[in-house]
């Protein structure tokens, strides 16, 4: 059975993908403006989201549809734990909690797993294909923006068990098309993928306030420093 699910997902999520890329937090990130505290909160949110998704995918790995997208080599939980240790220290578990919309994202994943597990395909596609497609670019941006050394705080972007990312994505999409779903279910999976994009954008919105505040503080500090230097120069001239 071929439902053209891969094409449906690609075409059906284009608008949501573009909207996500135009979020203030994402645009700042892509331009190399990354505030470390906001970023580590995002990593914490991702930890809870990916943990929920991977637990539910594992739970349904023998399901005829979920089995098509069950690839343990994609799992991000361990890499996120590594990054959280870097950003928060060894006691990170005592310091992190999901934000309001991070928790909403987790709750939605648990809900569909309990009611229509096929919809987990929409979440898997939204997260993992995006991670594979832009991981190395985003890793480089994060390293430069936060002055990170190689191997520090960017494990999330590394897929050690996938040697050829393009070939893997081709295999993933082929499996999507082989998934035993009818047109109605395929449409529901696309709708769920768009909802996943929406939840992701709401998480970004929560962090935008922190980012704007941090940027404002940096600008204030820069202006204050310049004024002080200017006053000192005038005093010296006198």
Describe the protein in words.
By secondary structure, the chain is an all-alpha fold. The chain has one domain (5-209): Heme Oxygenase, Chain A. The protein has helices spanning 5-12, 14-21, 24-30, 36-59, 77-88, 100-115, 120-145, 165-178, 183-237. The model is unreliable at 214-220 (pLDDT under 50).
Search tags:
238 residues, mainly alpha, Heme Oxygenase, Chain A, 9 helices, 71% helix, globular
Percentage beta strand = under 5%
Number of domains: 1
Q: Kindly report the average pLDDT value.
A: 88
- Using only C-alpha atoms, the radius of gyration works out to 21 Å
Unreliable residue stretches: 214-220
CATH architecture tag: Up-down Bundle
Largest sheet, strands/sense/barrel: none
User: In one word, what is the shape?
Assistant: globular
Number of strands: 0
Structural class: mainly alpha
CATH topology: Heme Oxygenase, Chain A
- Output the CATH class name: Mainly Alpha
User: What is the CATH superfamily?
Assistant: Heme oxygenase-like
Short description:
The protein has 238 residues and is mainly alpha-helical. It has helices spanning 5-12, 14-21, 24-30, 36-59, 77-88, 100-115, 120-145, 165-178, 183-237.
Question: Which SSEs are present, and which pair or pack?
Answer:
Layout: H1 5-12, H2 14-21, H3 24-30, H4 36-59, H5 77-88, H6 100-115, H7 120-145, H8 165-178, H9 183-237
Helix pairs in contact: 1-9, 2-9, 4-5, 4-6, 4-9, 6-9, 7-9
